[in-house]
Amino acid sequence: MRLHDLKSNPGAKTRRKRVGRGPGSGRGKTSTRGHKGQGSRTGSSTRATFEGGQMPYIRRLPKRGFNNARTRVEYLPVNLAALEEHFENGTTVDIETILATGLANGRGDVRVKILGQGKLTKKLSVKAHAYSGAAKAAIEAAGGSCEVINQAPQASEEAPAEPAPAPAEEAPAEEAPAEEAPAEEAPAEEAPAEEVPAEEAPAGEANEADAAGDKPAEA
Length: 219
Hints:
Layout: H1 57-60, E1 76-79, H2 80-86, E2 92-93, H3 95-100, E3 112-115, E4 125-128, E5 130-131, H4 133-141, E6 145-148, H5 203-214
Parallel strand pairs: 1-3, 2-4, 3-5, 4-6
């Protein structure tokens, strides 16, 4: 066996499709592109779900129901038969040992649930995130123990309410200024007293006074 004797498996390598070599090449004169249109142009490409501009099939389908994919908690199942096969009597079985033996695979925070398929005759101290009722009863019947591992609370769970801060002492209310007494109204200006008309002298005396005033003063 030499390097040049090695060959790929049948069908692993295929010849590339040579186009543009005339009608005798088996690809036709249009080089498998057809006549005119967007698909015959150089650089033309569309996504796999493109339907020429009409409403795509995925958008025409109705959407119903509920999906909790973002909030659900998923467990990796491990049965009693696997514990019976991979662990000795008196062993402490926790998440690290389960992952080390390959009974569960995963990344990050792995959650393991013990299920009741199979029989368990060994005394095991099991530490997992959840147990089925049959699995828990079988482990305890064999003399073992079941310990539940509590994960950190998820973000969706409500955080404990923080104690409300003590109310700040209110500053003493400022005394309202005493209402100012209404300004004394300025005394109204007294109306000028009506002039008492002078008593008219009798007509005879008035004429005599006028006559006296008309006479020139005597030297």
